[in-house]
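Reagents: none. Just compute today. MORN repeat variant.
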Amino acid sequence: MEKNGEVTVYYPNGRMMSKKTFKKGVPHGEAITYYETGMIKCRRNYVEGLKEGERFKYFETGKMALKEFYVKGMREGEKTTYYPNGEIETVGHYKEDRKHGEFILYNNKGEVDERVHYENGHRID
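Predicted 3D structure written out:
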């Protein structure tokens, strides 16, 4: 039987593990996963089974761990990852799900460690 509507899964302790909406058997709409503590782990959207729009991942403390963007199931545009202390870890861009352009890597104090350049997924420096 094809899944339609909201599907919720729970941890053995009764807390919500995930909540995802389906349409005609494929993810469609918001999908959220949770840590066993109840804090949000990941939030993303789907359109007809493909990742679409912003995706956010969080540390168990609630601080942002990752922010990226999808278009028709592929990463597109800026992706930012964070250290648990809230400092930016990396900032880079994707084009059609491949690294493209400058990626900046930071240490956990917010200082630039390295700059790397990519073109269509290949490192060029």
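Residues 1-56 form one domain.
Action item: order primers for follow-up constructs.
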